Amino acid sequence: MQIAAEPARTARVTLASRAPVKFAAQRILGRDLHFWFRRTNLDTARPGRFMRTPPTQLVIDDGRYRAAPTSGAPERRPVFTGIDGSKAIWSDGSREEVDAIVTAPGY
After folding, report:
1. Using an 8 Å Cβ cutoff, are 40 and 31 in contact?
2. Residue 25's domain spans which residues?
3. What are the tens digits of pLDDT across the range 15-56?
Protein backbone atom coordinates (compact mmCIF):
# COMPACT_ATOMS: atom_id res chain seq x y z
CA MET A 1 0.00 0.00 0.00
CA GLN A 2 2.77 2.43 0.88
CA ILE A 3 4.50 1.82 -2.45
CA ALA A 4 1.25 2.36 -4.40
CA ALA A 5 -0.06 5.38 -2.48
CA GLU A 6 2.77 7.79 -3.33
CA PRO A 7 2.60 7.64 -7.15
CA ALA A 8 -1.22 7.46 -6.99
CA ARG A 9 -1.18 11.13 -6.05
CA THR A 10 -0.21 12.06 -9.61
CA ALA A 11 -0.73 8.92 -11.74
CA ARG A 12 -3.30 6.18 -12.21
CA VAL A 13 -2.20 3.29 -9.97
CA THR A 14 -3.82 -0.10 -9.37
CA LEU A 15 -2.87 -2.08 -6.28
CA ALA A 16 -3.29 -5.76 -7.19
CA SER A 17 -3.34 -8.07 -4.17
CA ARG A 18 -4.48 -11.59 -3.37
CA ALA A 19 -6.56 -10.40 -0.41
CA PRO A 20 -7.95 -7.09 0.83
CA VAL A 21 -5.39 -4.92 2.59
CA LYS A 22 -5.41 -5.06 6.39
CA PHE A 23 -4.26 -2.13 8.49
CA ALA A 24 -2.73 -1.67 11.93
CA ALA A 25 -2.67 1.66 13.73
CA GLN A 26 0.74 3.35 13.78
CA ARG A 27 0.24 4.62 17.33
CA ILE A 28 -1.31 2.73 20.23
CA LEU A 29 -1.74 4.30 23.66
CA GLY A 30 0.40 7.25 22.56
CA ARG A 31 3.35 5.10 21.44
CA ASP A 32 4.52 3.97 18.04
CA LEU A 33 3.59 0.36 17.23
CA HIS A 34 7.29 -0.52 16.90
CA PHE A 35 7.82 0.55 20.53
CA TRP A 36 5.31 -2.10 21.62
CA PHE A 37 6.89 -4.73 19.35
CA ARG A 38 10.28 -4.10 20.96
CA ARG A 39 8.82 -3.90 24.48
CA THR A 40 7.06 -7.27 24.13
CA ASN A 41 9.80 -8.89 21.98
CA LEU A 42 7.26 -9.46 19.21
CA ASP A 43 9.72 -7.86 16.78
CA THR A 44 11.99 -10.92 17.14
CA ALA A 45 9.34 -13.61 17.68
CA ARG A 46 9.03 -16.44 15.18
CA PRO A 47 5.30 -16.86 14.51
CA GLY A 48 5.81 -20.38 13.15
CA ARG A 49 6.60 -21.64 16.65
CA PHE A 50 3.14 -20.63 17.90
CA MET A 51 0.87 -20.87 14.87
CA ARG A 52 0.64 -22.99 11.76
CA THR A 53 -0.30 -20.12 9.43
CA PRO A 54 1.41 -16.79 10.13
CA PRO A 55 -0.91 -13.76 10.12
CA THR A 56 -1.44 -11.63 7.03
CA GLN A 57 1.06 -8.83 6.63
CA LEU A 58 -0.45 -5.63 8.00
CA VAL A 59 0.03 -2.13 6.63
CA ILE A 60 1.15 0.03 9.55
CA ASP A 61 -0.82 3.21 9.07
CA ASP A 62 -1.22 6.67 10.55
CA GLY A 63 -4.52 7.08 8.67
CA ARG A 64 -3.25 8.16 5.24
CA TYR A 65 -3.01 4.69 3.72
CA ARG A 66 -6.40 3.47 4.96
CA ALA A 67 -8.04 6.48 3.28
CA ALA A 68 -6.22 6.02 -0.06
CA PRO A 69 -8.23 3.09 -1.57
CA THR A 70 -11.58 4.58 -0.56
CA SER A 71 -10.66 7.67 -2.58
CA GLY A 72 -9.70 5.43 -5.53
CA ALA A 73 -6.02 6.34 -5.45
CA PRO A 74 -4.78 3.68 -5.67
CA GLU A 75 -7.57 1.47 -6.95
CA ARG A 76 -7.40 -2.05 -5.44
CA ARG A 77 -8.19 -5.12 -7.52
CA PRO A 78 -7.56 -8.84 -7.18
CA VAL A 79 -4.24 -9.92 -8.71
CA PHE A 80 -4.20 -10.05 -12.50
CA THR A 81 -4.22 -13.50 -14.08
CA GLY A 82 -1.63 -12.86 -16.77
CA ILE A 83 0.45 -10.47 -18.82
CA ASP A 84 0.25 -10.15 -22.60
CA GLY A 85 2.97 -7.81 -23.83
CA SER A 86 2.26 -4.50 -22.09
CA LYS A 87 -1.24 -5.47 -20.98
CA ALA A 88 -2.38 -6.92 -17.68
CA ILE A 89 -5.15 -9.51 -17.98
CA TRP A 90 -7.67 -9.31 -15.13
CA SER A 91 -9.80 -12.18 -13.82
CA ASP A 92 -12.88 -10.80 -15.60
CA GLY A 93 -11.03 -11.11 -18.92
CA SER A 94 -10.48 -7.39 -19.37
CA ARG A 95 -7.08 -6.16 -20.49
CA GLU A 96 -5.37 -3.00 -19.34
CA GLU A 97 -2.30 -1.28 -20.78
CA VAL A 98 0.35 -0.89 -18.06
CA ASP A 99 3.53 1.15 -17.99
CA ALA A 100 5.14 -0.64 -15.06
CA ILE A 101 4.55 -3.47 -12.59
CA VAL A 102 6.16 -3.09 -9.18
CA THR A 103 6.22 -6.22 -7.05
CA ALA A 104 6.51 -6.58 -3.29
CA PRO A 105 7.15 -10.33 -2.98
CA GLY A 106 8.16 -10.10 0.68
CA TYR A 107 4.52 -9.65 1.68
Report:
1. no
2. 2-79
3. 888 888 887 888 888 888 878 888 887 767 766 666 666 556
